[in-house]
Design a protein that fits this description.
about 190 residues, alpha+beta, four-stranded antiparallel sheet, 6 helices, about 30% helix, globular
Length: about 190
């Protein structure tokens, strides 16, 4: 069926509240009635100015945020169903602009292994995923290096490798190449 091959947002709204107390007057709408259908296997670009809601939309799809209203269906799974939360999250990865907010390890290969290891991926598959992801982003030779010794661009490649090692059905890149040099951006 078609719904098993799409991510669909139907009339989604989301507001950020600037105050401790929630009131309609203090809420800033980041998304207001957004409807979109994204086909499995497609490359989709969401364009807009700063503050237009692109990052919020990414977070809604990956269930990092919950919409105020509307519906999100992830390959036939209702994202509002709490029992499907981890199943959806295991199949969707976001890479954001700032890699320091996404890195959890101290050694490069340990960081890349963190996600799949938490999903219970066994060895030797875990080792293969980590090595392949590091090769894909050009960091394999740095696999034993401490993360503090990496440049900002290398850290961003590391965040991307961590997402690739999860082998998600959906990879969301929210300005993920912003910290890469022009050559690395072209490679990506």
């Amino acid at each position: 069926p078609e719904e098993l091959n799409t991510i669909e947002l139907q009339d989604v709204t989301f507001s950020y509240d600037d105050t401790e107390e929630v009131s309609d007057k203090s809420a800033k709408k980041a998304l207001d009635g957004i409807s979109v259908r994204i086909e499995r296997g497609s490359y989709t670009a969401i364009l807009g100015s700063n503050g237009s809601g692109k990052s919020t939309l990414a977070k809604i799809i990956d269930i990092l945020e919950v919409p105020d209203s509307g519906k999100v269906v992830f390959f036939g799974k209702d994202a509002s169903d709490d029992e499907l939360f981890w199943e959806i999250r295991a199949n969707c990865c976001c890479v954001f602009q700032n890699p320091d907010n996404q890195i959890v390890g101290t050694i490069v290969e340990e960081d890349v292994a963190f996600g799949p290891e938490n999903l219970g991926v066994p060895n030797p598959e875990l080792r293969e995923r980590v090595d392949q992801a590091l090769k894909d982003v050009g960091l394999y030779k740095y696999r034993h290096r401490e993360i503090t010794a990496l440049s900002g661009g290398q850290k961003q490649k590391l965040a991307i490798a961590g997402a690739l090692a999860m082998r998600p059905d959906v990879l969301i890149l929210d300005e993920a190449t912003a910290m890469l040099d022009p050559s690395s951006r072209a490679d990506f």
